[in-house]
Design goal:
The radius of gyration is 27 Å and the shape is rod-shaped. By secondary structure, the chain is mostly helical. It has one domain.
Amino acid sequence: MDAIPDIVDLVLWLLAALSVLTWTIMFVKLYGLWRNDKGNREVLRVFGEARQIGEIRLDDEAMRGPLARLYSAGRQELQTLQADQPNELDHKDRREMLQHALRQQIHTEQSQMENGMAFLASVGSTSPFIGLFGTVWGIMHALKSISSSGSAGLDVVAGPIGEALIATAMGIAAAIPAVLAYNYFLRRVRLSVAAMDHFADRFLHLVIKSGLGGK
């Protein structure tokens, strides 16, 4: 009989751990978004002032953002095309290879931004059921206590029922922030991918404007 309420305690500790991990991921990702936004603003400022690809100069602060890494990937591919195959490919082939390199980097950035989101989705979908499991187990213990004691007094059922209700509340409390955070970060990822797509187009336009291979 003593082992039965320990299951409810285990459920409570599990939900508490999931809640702590959820909030940790939320704060880490919010800080990452803030840092990325700061770097992206600097990159867009520099690009807005540049007329040739060779005029782009990014400092260490700007290089922290995904747009800067996208620029670096494109610039590196462009330099590789110039060094390895300067005359073998026409402009269309170079643009296609450059677009492929930019697209691969966008996929890499998207994968990094989605880190932790599967965990948030899992917590949001499973926590209420974990809490419900604790509730059912607590009620089972309460019913067994009533059966063994032959009494349905408040002193017999209050403890197990109280634990059961706490498990339900903690399951909901762990799920709500996880669901809200998942939806928010999912929207931010989609906006970031759209911004990177737009930036890739601007990069290609600037490359073409520079003669498809500025110095």
